[in-house]
């Protein structure tokens, strides 16, 4: 089935272009969602208009994503969580939590499915990808610290005391 796209479709193509797709994909998804129409000769005359509109919209989005990428790269989110002695969290910091905090700090509406791949379960600093588009994929820095009274924090304090004692004995 040949379909003329009315809007850009991820993993398929750009608006105003004709693509050959599986019958079911075109009939059950693209056409009902308003993303494409059946490519007939009369519709092909409108393709140039849709292509020009889509190019203008893509240029707008590119400028917006470029600005947003810079903000996201500079953003650092800090979480405090309970962790075991090895630094492994008892729970996890989910992509939903990261997305909510990122949206709140930047004043944006980024979809949670575009942030990261899986929940974070380890203390420390993590780089989490934000997939705005194929060309713009900035990283947000997420720092996870041990909660007060957490076994991981107690172990590191004991190790620090041992290092101080060893330094006093040596010097």
Question: How is this structure best described in words?
Answer:
The chain is α+β, with helices and mostly antiparallel strands and 171 residues long. Helices cover 42% and strands 23% of the residues. It is built from 5 helices and 8 strands; from the N terminus they run ββαβααββαβββα. The chain has helices at residues 23-30, 41-44, 47-74, 95-106, 151-170; strands at 2-5, 18-20, 36-38, 76-81, 88-93, 120-122, 124-129, 139-146. The strands form 3 sheets. The chain has a 3-stranded antiparallel β-sheet, with no helix packed on it. Strands 4-8-7 form a 3-stranded mixed β-sheet. A two-stranded antiparallel ribbon has the order 5-6. The relative contact order is 0.13. The mean pLDDT is 84.
Structure at a glance:
By secondary structure, the chain is α+β, with helices and mostly antiparallel strands. 42% of the residues lie in helices and 23% in strands.
* Major beta sheet, strand line-up: 2-1-3
Number of helices: 5
Query: What does the main sheet amount to?
Result: 3 strands, antiparallel
Structural class: alpha+beta
Which stretches are poorly predicted, pLDDT < 50 over at least 5 residues? none
What is the global morphology? elongated
